[in-house]
Design brief:
Shape: globular
Number of strands: 7
Helix content: 25-40%
Structural class: alpha+beta
Distance between the termini: 51 Å
Length: 119
């Protein structure tokens, strides 16, 4: 299980996780309930830069966190098929795992092309 941090969006800010094909996201202001989102529920998944995050009007705490980003950290934005979205932060290894899972699931959902029959 890899750690991610939710910075902004339609989910409360806080710590989350990514494992195999699922995001576990904070679900309420007390972080008592969480929500699990399968990678198949993603409409888009993109790497973004610090300036894009600050345009969202994030909290001072988040701005301080952005000022302390290291070379190993990646900012990303996710949009779900139900139109909710969030901005997250992960290390490069976790980001690569998420990206790979997204590609694999995308290929798995593609219809299999039939080979032309020999006539």
């Amino acid at each position: 299980m890899s750690k991610i941090t939710i910075l902004a969006g339609d989910f409360p800010s806080g710590n989350g996780h990514f494992s195999f094909r699922n995001f576990t996201l904070p679900g309420d202001s007390n972080h008592y309930l969480c929500e699990t989102v399968n990678i198949n529920q993603l409409e888009s998944f993109n790497k973004i830069n610090k300036e894009m995050v600050t345009m969202l009007g994030v909290s001072e705490r988040t701005e301080r966190m952005l000022d302390d980003l290291t070379e190993d950290q990646v900012l990303f934005m996710v949009r779900l098929k139900d139109k909710r979205r969030f901005v997250g932060l992960a290390d490069k290894r976790t980001y690569d795992k998420m990206n790979t899972a997204r590609r694999i699931e995308g290929n798995r959902n593609q219809p299999i092309a039939k080979a032309p029959s020999a006539a």
